[in-house]
Write a structure and sequence with these properties.
Layout: E1 2-4, H1 18-27, E2 30-36, H2 43-50, E3 56-60, H3 72-85, E4 91-100, H4 109-129, E5 133-138, H5 141-149, E6 156-159, H6 165-173, E7 176-180, H7 190-198, E8 204-206, H8 233-244, H9 248-262
Helix pairs in contact: 3-4, 8-9
Keywords: Hydrolase, Metal-binding
GO molecular function, one term: metal ion binding
Family: Belongs to the metallo-dependent hydrolases superfamily. TatD-type hydrolase family.
Length: about 270
């Protein structure tokens, strides 16, 4: 079974044909889709969406890009939502959380400090409730790792990983697996392809980050670019099999097993 470990299926880009998108993914063998929240405003949305189709799962968290508008009560509400969701088998992680030092507005000293505050607070929630995390990692690997080392093993997925081999090893040592998706499909992405080829297979999972990070084969459609879909994880799995020179079936089995290990609450497909 293919699992898209990171898909913003609630995004407005899917409003016109969301059901058809889910059906297309299923036709391509995608049996699980993890939908992370990004802020308080979509906690309920991702939960309801995950419950609307077979294989839907969700995570709750505050994305670093949403941190500038976040307020203290948002963390209180997040904890309340986590507590309410602990008995929900479709709830699998805290996420999407992390740090973003790429977006200019998030690189100011004030925003870096606020991001770290929210990231640290959400790691504490993960530790308190025994949950893994879905990490947003963009030019922030070392600071993310610093906070993780201060806590017992939390584990989870480092989404859209694009750091160095040494940083990858450190995340793996801390109990994380690494998400690979559309960026890997571009021939110029030499570093990501090296990681995908050289890292142990038990450290890799598949993702789309749909509607973002479309794979190379979708081409360019205007300034915004093409919309990515969860069904594209099938092509990503095929490319990973080619890069590693193994059978596609091996990639599908291994990546699904790795996902279940990283997200223990993700069991079954109902």
């Amino acid at each position: 079974m293919l699992i898209d470990t990171h898909c913003h299926l609630d995004a407005s880009e899917f409003n016109a044909d969301r059901v058809a998108v889910i059906e297309r993914a299923g036709e391509k063998g995608v049996g699980g889709i993890v939908i992370p929240s990004v802020a308080r405003f979509n906690f309920d949305t991702v939960r309801q969406l995950a419950h609307s189709f077979k294989g839907g799962r969700y995570a709750l968290g505050i994305h670093p890009i949403c941190v500038p508008d976040a307020l203290g009560p948002d963390l209180v509400e997040l904890e309340s939502q986590i507590q309410q969701s602990l008995d929900d088998p479709r709830f699998v992680a805290i996420g999407e959380i992390g740090l973003d030092y790429f977006v200019p507005a998030l690189k100011t000293p004030e925003m870096r400090e606020k991001q770290e505050t929210y990231y640290s607070a959400q790691l504490d929630l993960a530790q308190r409730y025994g949950l893994p995390v879905l990490l947003h990692v963009r030019r922030s690997q070392d600071i993310l790792l610093k906070h993780l080392r201060r806590r017992p093993r939390i584990g989870g997925i480092a989404h859209a990983f694009n750091g160095s081999f040494q940083q990858a090893e450190q995340f793996i040592e801390l109990g994380f697996v690494l998400g690979f998706g559309g960026a890997m499909t571009f021939g110029r992405a030499l570093q990501i392809r090296r990681l995908a080829t050289q890292l142990p297979m038990d450290a890799l999972v598949l993702e789309t980050d749909a509607p973002d990070i479309p794979p190379a084969w979708l081409g360019q459609r205007g300034d915004v670019g093409p919309r990515n879909e969860p069904g594209e994880v099938a092509g990503i799995a095929q490319l990973l099999a080619e890069l590693r020179n193994v059978d596609l079936a091996d990639i599908i089995l291994a990546s699904a097993a790795n996902t279940r290990r990283a997200l223990p609450r993700l069991v079954g497909t109902n």
